[in-house]
Amino acid sequence: MLLVFLPGAFLAPDEFEREGFISAMTERDVAADVMLVDANVSYYYDQTFTTHLQQDVLDPARALGYRSIWLVGISIGGFGALIHQLAQPGSVQGIVALAPYLGRRPLAAEIRKAGGLRAWKAPDGPLPDEEVDRRLWPWLQQYADEMPTKELPPLYLGFGLADRFAANHALLAEVLPEDRVFTTEGGHDWPQWSRLWRRMLDVLPLPSRSPSAPAFRTPAAARPRAIAA
Question: What is the pTM of this model?
Answer without folding.
Answer: 0.90
